[in-house]
Design brief:
This protein is mainly α. It has 32 helices and no strands. The two termini are 51 Å apart. InterPro entries: ARM-like (IPR011989), ARM-type_fold (IPR016024), HEAT_type_2 (IPR021133), PBS_lyase_HEAT (IPR004155).
Length: 520
């Protein structure tokens, strides 16, 4: 039995590795990658399904599923009856990846009958399958005593689109007497948008126990766009329960009923910082000219305690009548939360604000430059490119990031020389710099990124490969093929991922890519 669980543990590790996104997606930093060797050809993996070694069979099932090799389906279906639990599990996951719905029933049966594998293995396979017809076999697990499994069941029901199970799930929820399980039911009913569950969900909010169940009920009411939940949700903004405030604000935004604006606005004067934060979110997010007018009224008063929030609301509501007053306050060093005023001008979207924003950007003030850089980017202010380039040299790391993002939004080729020199001077900022360069739609920008892949510094060549993948420019294919045939194992692997992103093809070896290149 110990061997079985070690086997399954390996299987899960392998699954996580092989089913990750083909190109890293993190923007702030790149994951550490180990050197990798050439992968097995698909033909070898198909042969490995007949191996006498269960470890080899299991490894082959996972990789074939990850590669979406449909010719493996008949054999994989037979392996669902393999004597080794790890092989059965691997075959189920692979068939899930291959979306072979003819296997759904067999996998669902194994989930209930296979005592050697945990249920979540087969639940994972069914989730990947995305076959709503097995929803009736999955939803009873919402009543399982394992809280982790229950959460996975919720995700599975959502992923397969099992909305038809709504009445059965609600019926199960109404019979439930366990407050902890109510959280699971609230999540499932909310995510599946079962509108008939409104009364049940409202009943859960009557118990103010500051529990995850209460928070889940608030969120679910928003997801089903409950018609009778406004008062409950508005009141929750003023309660001491932090997660409850957050979820209630999200629910109010999702419901989007302008009738709550006046009452929500009253809570903006709260001394509780969290309440003020979530109230501001609601007033910013529900389209309402009334919210903008009320906030603009605050900006014309003497009490500046809520000016920052008011500026955000005026900006997000794109209240053009407030632009001049916001510009006036932005220029005053005594104005609190000046970054919020600058950002508001970006949201309003009037290029008449560009001169003020350029002035504040390079003012050296502790507040205002960051929001000004962001707003100039949003406004696409090409005339501000020289100022944003100057901001890169002011020695403020935070402002540098904002300026880079703005330059990326503007995408003016005149910024390229500075970005190129900055990349050479600050390799640790390569992800942000290369991301900015990649947004410039010129041949020169492409060549700068390609040149960065030649660096010996992983902090530079990794994000460069990532940006090539994102741009999907077929002119980069020859360079990538050079790396695919090179001696650097990591760059070879990264080139496969990038080639897949650029071409849409899925090959795992240099030989396969070379054969494809000859035909194209």
């Amino acid at each position: 039995m110990q061997k079985t669980w070690i086997f399954i543990s390996f299987f899960f590790t392998l699954t996580l590795f092989l089913n990750c996104d083909p190109v890293p997606i993190k923007e702030d930093k790149n994951p550490v990658m180990e050197s990798v060797s050439e992968e097995q050809p698909t033909e070898s993996l198909l042969e490995a399904l007949n191996s006498s070694d269960p470890f080899t069979r299991s490894q082959a099932t996972i990789q074939l599923g990850s590669r979406e090799v449909r010719s493996a389906i008949p054999k994989l279906k037979k392996l669902l009856s393999d004597k080794e639990p790890g092989v059965r599990a691997g075959a189920a996951i692979a068939l899930g990846d291959l979306k072979d719905k003819s296997s759904s029933t067999a996998i669902a049966n194994l989930m209930w009958s296979d005592s050697e594998n945990p249920k979540d293995v087969y639940l994972d396979a069914l989730t990947r399958m995305k076959d709503p017809s097995v929803g009736n076999r999955i939803y009873p697990l919402l009543d399982d005593n394992n809280p982790t499994l229950r959460l996975q069941v919720v995700d599975a029901l959502v992923q397969i689109g099992a909305k038809a199970m709504g009445p059965q799930i609600l019926n199960l929820a109404l019979k439930n007497k366990d407050r902890e399980k109510d959280k699971t039911y609230a999540m499932a009913l909310g995510k599946l948008k079962i509108s008939s569950s409104e009364s049940y969900l409202l009943s859960l909010t009557k118990i103010q126990d500051e529990s995850p169940t209460l928070a889940a009920a608030y969120l679910a009411l928003g997801r089903i766009k409950a018609k009778n939940a406004n008062e409950v949700l508005v009141n929750a903004l003023n309660l001491p329960y932090s997660k409850g405030k957050e979820n209630a604000s999200m629910a109010l935004i999702e419901i989007g009923n302008p009738s709550v604006i006046t009452k929500v606005f009253q809570s903006l004067s709260s001394d509780n910082a969290e309440t003020k934060l979530y109230v501001t979110d609601v007033l910013c997010s529900i389209p309402s000219k009334e919210a903008a007018k009320l906030a603009f009224g605050l900006l014309n008063g003497k009490d500046n305690k809520n000016w920052g929030s008011a500026a955000k609301i005026v900006g997000r509501q794109r209240y053009r009548e407030g632009r001049i007053r916001i510009e006036e306050l932005l220029e005053k060093s005594s104005t609190p939360e000046r970054d919020s005023f600058a950002e508001a001008l970006g949201w309003i979207g009037d290029k008449a604000s560009v001169p003020v924003l350029r002035k504040v950007l390079l003012s050296g003030a502790p507040e205002g430059p960051y929001g000004s850089a962001w707003a100039l980017g949003i406004l696409g202010a090409k005339e501000a490119v020289p100022d944003l380039i100057k901001a890169l040299d002011l020695g403020d790391a935070k402002l540098m990031v904002y300026a880079l993002e703005a330059l990326g939004s503007i995408a003016d080729p005149t910024s390229l020389p500075k970005l190129k020199s900055l990349l050479a001077d600050r390799p640790k900022m390569a992800p942000q710099i290369l991301s900015t360069i990649a947004l410039i739609p010129t041949e020169e920008a492409r060549l700068v990124i390609e040149e960065a892949t030649k660096s010996k510094n992983a902090e530079v060549y990794r994000p460069a490969m990532e940006e090539i993948a994102k741009r999907k420019d077929k002119k980069s294919i020859p360079l990538l093929l050079t790396y695919a045939n090179g001696d650097d194992a990591e760059k070879r692997k990264l080139s496969y991922y990038a080639l897949t992103a650029v071409t849409g093809e899925k090959f795992r070896t240099a030989k396969e890519w070379n054969e494809w290149a000859k035909k194209n």
